[in-house]
Every structure is written in C-alpha cells, then in structure tokens.
Amino acid sequence: MKLLTLNFLTCAIKTCKTNPASFPLHPRDAELEIQESDLNLPFLKNILPRLMWEEIRILAKELGLPDLPGSAPVPEDLVDSSSNAALDTPEVSQGDEREQEASQTARDLHRVLIETCIQEGKLVCGSCGHEYSVKEGVANFLLPGHLV
What we know:
The chain is α+β, with helices and mostly antiparallel strands. It contains 5 helices and 4 strands; from the N terminus they run E-H-H-H-H-H-E-E-E. The chain has a 4-stranded antiparallel sheet with strand order 1-2-3-4. The longest helix has 12 residues, at 104-115.
C-alpha cells in the first residue's frame, strides 16, 4: 500500500464519518518497503492540489521518513530551475513536460508518496481506535457486522 493511498482513506465505521480525527489513519507496527519506479512528473504536478499536506507530513514523521517541507510544494517546485525556461512558452506540450528535468523536491516527493509502501502492519483510526490490518501490502477494510 503506497503512502499516497493514505491521503484518501478514512475510517469506515459509521460513527467516525463526521469526526475529523478519523482522518488520516495512522500506521502502527508498519513494515515499509521501497518499490522503485520511474518518476512521473505530470502525475506529481496533478496530484499536488489533492494532497492533504499537513496529514502527509504527519504520516511521514510517524513512519520515520525524512521530514517533508512545512508548506506544500507548487508544480513549479517540481521542475529543475534550469528547465523552467521551457515552462514559459505557451506551446509546451504534454510530451515536452515529460522531458523536463525533475527537481530534488520532485524526486523526494516521488520517493515518499509513490515508492514507499506499507507491506505489513496496521492502520489505526484516531477517533475510535479501530485497527485495520495490512498484509502483503493490502489493507483489510471489511468490518464485523456490529460496526457497520
């Protein structure tokens, strides 16, 4: 389960739906694995506005990952400054964007969000304390009948 996935998960228990403490789910006893992949700069630029940045920073800290910047990066931060001249031309196409050089910020963000995976452990709700197990990189969100 990629760390990015935790940005979109909340507790499935009905009574937690309105409680802000049910997001994000906090990893406990997490066994991490790095699964290397090619950096996709357009994807990172498009996902930035959807990230709950403070929550991602908290999760990274809880997992013992390097500290992320205090404020969310903007798409311009993801491109190496020597490649920024290409961004100023209005005729830049999607193909040209893939050829731009990724900045260190983009590489770090890619490493944390995309390549860092939780292989084993638990995800714990901050509201009710319910634990969702993670086995072989897959979280189990099936609830017993009395909690549905």
